[in-house]
């Protein structure tokens, strides 16, 4: 059976395309979802792409992912820098996870340099705009291939 991945997006990412385009680009979240589904399909994965402005909803989706998905890609947006709850949820389900950011969070304000998710993910892709998501899908496909070999 094809592996399936859950791609989660945090607060304000529903505003992409209109939101600070000089930092986040002109692609909408729908554009990114379409590109992710296409990329995942090309790699033989199925992808479920979701966004929420609510921390608890994201925590719930991570908890429910156990047993339903093989891996998680997450752009937690501002919750990256604040949320012990998302970190704990990722550690609790123990699925391979990859953190994604459109912008290079290390080249911006100091408060963006710290990620609470860091210890709960295999790695992070940041700074490549919408392409960050596609690179993360490549990475998770690689991880999932290693575990099924
Ligand atoms: C972001 C970076 C975060 O610092 C910010 O709060 C976001 C988007 C990114 O994708 O570059 O909302 O996660």
Summarize this structure briefly:
It is built from 5 helices and 5 strands; from the N terminus they run βααβαβαββα.
Describe the secondary structure blueprint for this structure:
Elements: E1 4-9, H1 21-24, H2 29-42, E2 46-51, H3 55-65, E3 71-75, H4 84-93, E4 97-101, E5 123-126, H5 131-148
Parallel strand pairs: 1-2, 1-3, 3-4, 4-5
Helix pairs in contact: 2-5, 3-4
Bound molecules: 1,3,4-trihydroxy-5-OXO-cyclohexanecarboxylic acid.
Biggest sheet layout? 5 strands, parallel
Are there runs of 5+ residues with pLDDT below 50, and where? none
Structural class: alpha/beta
What average pLDDT do the residues reach?
96
Encode the helix/strand succession as letters. EHHEHEHEEH
Strand proportion: 15-25%
Radius of gyration: 14 Å
Share of helix, binned: 25-40%
User: How many E-type strands?
Assistant: 5
Distance between the termini: 14 Å
The geometry reads as: globular
Q: Which ligands does the model contain, each kind named once?
A: 1,3,4-trihydroxy-5-OXO-cyclohexanecarboxylic acid
What order do the strands of the largest sheet run in, or round the barrel if closed? 2-1-3-4-5
Q: Can you give a write-up of this model?
A:
This protein has 149 residues and is α/β, with parallel strands linked by helices. It is built from 5 helices and 5 strands; from the N terminus they run E-H-H-E-H-E-H-E-E-H. The protein has helices at residues 21-24, 29-42, 55-65, 84-93, 131-148; strands spanning 4-9, 46-51, 71-75, 97-101, 123-126. A 5-stranded parallel β-sheet has the order 2-1-3-4-5, sandwiched between helices. Helix 2 (29-42) runs parallel beside helix 5 (131-148) and helix 3 runs parallel beside helix 4 (84-93). It starts with a strand and ends with a helix. 1,3,4-trihydroxy-5-OXO-cyclohexanecarboxylic acid is lined by residues 12, 75, 77-78, 80, 101-103, 105, 112.
């Amino acid at each position: 059976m094809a592996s399936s991945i859950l791609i989660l997006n945090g607060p304000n990412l529903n505003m992409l395309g209109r939101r600070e385009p000089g930092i986040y680009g002109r692609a909408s979240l729908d554009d990114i979802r379409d590109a992710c589904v296409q990329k995942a399909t090309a790699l033989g994965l199925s992808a479920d792409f979701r966004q929420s402005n609510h921390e608890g909803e994201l925590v719930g989706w991570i908890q429910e992912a156990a047993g339903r998905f093989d891996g998680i890609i997450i752009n937690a947006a501002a919750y990256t820098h604040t949320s012990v709850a998302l970190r704990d949820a990722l550690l609790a389900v123990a699925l391979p996870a990859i953190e994604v950011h459109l912008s290079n969070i290390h080249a911006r304000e100091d408060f963006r340099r710290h990620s609470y998710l860091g210890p709960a993910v295999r790695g992070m892709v940041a700074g490549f705009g919408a392409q960050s998501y596609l690179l993360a899908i490549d990475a998770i496909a690689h991880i999932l291939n290693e575990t099924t070999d």
